[in-house]
Write a structure and sequence with these properties.
Blueprint: H1 3-37, H2 43-48, H3 67-73, H4 78-89, H5 98-101, H6 109-125
Helix pairs in contact: 1-6, 4-6
Organism: Portunus trituberculatus
Protein name: Reverse transcriptase zinc-binding domain-containing protein
């Protein structure tokens, strides 16, 4: 393979990676918007709309899978919750609840984008980005 072909191949690879990353960014932004609106495919919401036979978390069948449970409490996602809390603690956030987590309230505007990016990373790491 010539030098020109290797350069072309690396350019193609970089392009494919940027498309994949931008697609993930769009999915993350869309999912955060859905979470902010309260319209998700979490079991509790689907059950309220009569689209699911039960409202329970897929890992803990006695706890409703509501947004707060998924984003803050689910023991199945403990390591991801811990990592998110650790990263958020570097920001000047004193209270971690649904409003601050979705950057809707209690966060200075200069930190909102960072919080949303951390949430998108959390959703990717939980492998739940496409499900929501």
């Amino acid at each position: 393979m010539g030098v020109h072909q290797r350069g072309w191949m690396s350019a193609v690879t970089r392009f494919k990676q940027s498309v994949r990353l931008s697609r993930e960014g769009v999915q993350g932004t869309s999912t955060i918007a859905s979470l902010r609106l309260g319209h998700t495919t979490l079991s509790a919401h689907l059950h309220r709309l009569c689209l699911s036979c039960d409202p329970f978390c897929p890992w803990f069948r006695t706890i409703p899978e509501a947004m707060e449970h998924f984003l803050l409490q689910c023991p199945h996602l403990l390591s991801q919750h811990t990592a998110l809390r650790s990263r958020l603690s570097a920001l000047p956030i004193t209270i971690l609840n649904m409003l601050t987590l979705l950057a809707a309230s209690g966060i200075h505007p200069s930190w909102q984008l960072a919080v949303l990016r951390l949430n998108s990373a959390f959703l990717r790491k939980t492998s739940q980005l496409l499900r929501l």
